[in-house]
Amino acid sequence: MSYFAFETIIKGIMVAAFRKFFLSFAAICALAQVSFANLYDNLPIVKSFDKYSEFEKEVIRGDGIWMVQFFSPTCPHCQNLVDEYKRFADVARGIYNIAAVDMSTEAGKRIGASFKVDTYPTLLMFGDDKKPKTYEGERKAQGMLQEMVDMSIITTIVFVVIMRMRPFIQR
User: Fold this and answer.
1) Residue 62: phi, psi to the nearest 5?
2) End-to-end distance of the chain based on CA atoms, in angstroms?
3) Pairing mode, if any, of strands 47-48 and 132-134?
4) What HEC string does the chain produce?
5) How many CA atoms lie within 13 A of 20 on its CB side?
6) Residues 107-126 pLDDT 10s
7) Does the CA dihedral 8-13-15-16 come out positive or negative?
8) Could you give the C-alpha distances from 98 to 13, 112, 114, in angstroms and in order?
9) Tell me: the pLDDT tens digits for 4-28?
10) How many other β-carbons are positioned within 10 Å of the β-carbon of residue 2?
11) What whole-number distance in Å separates Cα of residue 58 and Cα of residue 97?
12) How far is C-alpha 44 from the geometric centre of its chain's CA atoms?
């Protein structure tokens, strides 16, 4: 076998191997984008913000008390918090405002930077005074809910009334 024939065979093998690698890599990236899109997509009880101006209008200038989670879709701790955060959002629905900011987007980076968010997940609470307070409690729905209730006495009274009325309303 000549050197030229040997070189041609090696190049063919390398091209085939590269194609397989590239296609596998592309498939993995596509799956990652699908599974890591926004951890709270298609969940109406958790508000997502696509623009800084929307965040400012609703959270900073708007009414109500907010819990906002700043997350990265690829962060394992953020992924582990999803179910508990959804549970919390379901219980707090209609009483508190619940949001999530995807820090992998340009809008998310801008919103997070304005509050010096540099670790994930970060949970910030915005009470009546609209000054952000970092939630440092247990990453369980009950703990998050208790912290939100403690932020405002009026909201707490409304919360208790609504929770006691829910069985009658749901019938």
Assistant:
1) -80, 180
2) 84
3) unpaired
4) CCHHHHHHHHHHHHHHHHHHHHHHHHHHHHHHHHHHCCCCCCCCCCEECCCHHHHHHHHHCCCCCEEEEEECCCCHHHHHHHHHHHHHHHHHCCCCEEEEEECCCHHHHHHHHHCCCCCCCEEEEECCCCCEEECCCCCCHHHHHHHHHHHCHHHHHHHHHHHHHHHHHCC
5) 6
6) 999 999 999 999 999 999 99
7) positive
8) 54, 16, 19
9) 554 565 555 554 543 444 334 444 4
10) 7
11) 10
12) 13
pTM recorded for the entire structure: 0.71
Q: Which two tokens stand for residue 82?
A: 């999803």
Q: How many CA atoms lie less than 13 Å away from 31 in the CB half-sphere? A: 6
Residue 28, token pair as written in the block: 């993995």
Burial of 12 (0-12, 13-18, 19+ CB in 10 A): exposed
Task: Determine the Cα–Cα distance for residues 44 and 131; give it in Å rounded to an integer.
Answer: 25
